[in-house]
Design goal:
Layout: H1 15-23, H2 25-38, H3 42-51, H4 55-66
Helix pairs in contact: 1-4, 2-3
């Protein structure tokens, strides 16, 4: 039976590479916004562009280490 692979953030990259990218604030800011825009979430992408360097970056880093996904506070 084939094991289904869940989609991780940062374009499906491996967990270690995603954590390294999440540690760097500029790449986490840009990739977080791009991820939300590619999901079709315009408002969430714009909020990430505006507030990406604040507490959102720290929360994204923690969640990336724990679950491999970024924060999804707004789903619109």
């Amino acid at each position: 039976m084939a094991k289904s692979r869940s989609r991780k953030d940062y374009f499906g990259l491996g967990k270690i590479i995603s954590i390294i990218l999440a540690i760097i604030p500029v790449t986490a800011w840009i990739l977080g916004a791009i991820t939300r825009f590619t999901e079709g979430k315009l408002v969430a992408g714009l909020i990430r562009l505006i507030f990406g360097f604040t507490i959102v970056w720290i929360i994204d880093l923690i969640l990336m280490i724990i679950s491999g996904k970024i924060l999804r506070l707004i789903n619109c």
